[in-house]
Amino acid sequence: MAPKRESPAPFVENVDTQYLETLIGYNARRAALAVIERFLKDMAVHDFRPVDFSVASLIYHNPGITSRQLCTALSILPPNLVALVNGLQKRGLITKRPHPNDGRAIGLYATPEGETLMALAEQDAANLEIAAGSRLTAAEHKTLLRLLQKVYL
Amino acid sequence: MAPKRESPAPFVENVDTQYLETLIGYNARRAALAVIERFLKDMAVHDFRPVDFSVASLIYHNPGITSRQLCTALSILPPNLVALVNGLQKRGLITKRPHPNDGRAIGLYATPEGETLMALAEQDAANLEIAAGSRLTAAEHKTLLRLLQKVYL
DNA sequence: TATTGTTATACTCTATAACTATA
DNA sequence: TATAGTTATAGAGTATAACAATA
Known about the structure:
Chain A has 6 helices and 2 strands; from the N terminus they run H-H-H-H-E-E-H-H. Helices cover 58% and strands 7% of the residues of chain A. In chain A, a hairpin with a 7-residue loop joins strand 1 and strand 2 (106-110). In chain A, helix 1 (24-42) packs across helix 5, helix 2 crosses helix 5 and helix 3 crosses helix 4 (78-90). Chain A is elongated and about 70 Å long. The structure holds a DNA duplex (23 and 23 nucleotides).
């Protein structure tokens, strides 16, 4: 059996990443980064980063949602959401109205312009999805979503 | 003219995240964050964040790997790797030796202490994996890894 | 007393420019 | 001229503390 000890100093030709590839966290992060990189490029026409898109999409699908609810749903801390919401408002995509039941809270609503943009952006995101998962069959795509949700839900 | 009756301002009871849950990027990121959160807690005894662990693990499994190779394998920019490698060296987990073929490069090697710690840490990470994927069967776990790799490889 | 939204601020992570030494 | 490693620094992302208004 050959000793792997001090012979000539070895050097690495092909990096062995086999161990890391057994870890869900490693793989999930790499996959997320790959998809997000593509998202940033393809959604730049709408001036949406993933976080802007996520916030706008939740407001679009949940008229009257509050900042606190957005924070909980997206794991964003309240101070970090303020600029995001104000940014969407300045772009005319959402409006604020008093919450009917709670004077402390503010309901967030997509404007007609916001609704139009989100319908378009969500369609683009769905197409981007297909491109990002182009090596997956439709069944594999569905399975992947289901298994990922089992991890974090 | 009777003022147009605004429909009573709605408010959201249960946030609808169905659309976002159709996106690979959203789910992969949520899953990665959930696993990483657990990793941070459980690996604190070894003083390893995910990035420290990944770098140390690749050096452990690839004696003589260079900083440049680590950067490529882990998508880390060279300036951001310097402190990581120096930190592992200061902890006595790795050593630097001249690269046999390239005077510009530096080969990185786990020390005996580093090898002992990594064997332990990788075992802990594997156990953590099982806990993080506790809602997955062994077959689902294997499928998840395979599908994630199809997305980013 | 607790919660919503907010400001200010600190900390971490990631990205860019430029230098040195070797190839 | 190009590449490996490094420094300094800028920018983005994430975190904590504290406050006013309301519950």
